[in-house]
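We give its fold:
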Amino acid sequence: MYKVAKASEFLAITGVGITDIKLAKKAWILPGQSCTVFDLSPVNYTFQVQAMSAEKLPFV
């Protein structure tokens, strides 16, 4: 089966004929091989800071 990853994705292919892990954007997946699609798109995290100003934040 021929698989193609989207713009922000990669294919991780393992199994018969591959010694470790093969990373690709497009590949033929042969019988005995498995393919996992993983996404590399950026994620933003928000958090609340209980401080009066940026100057009073402790430096850790």
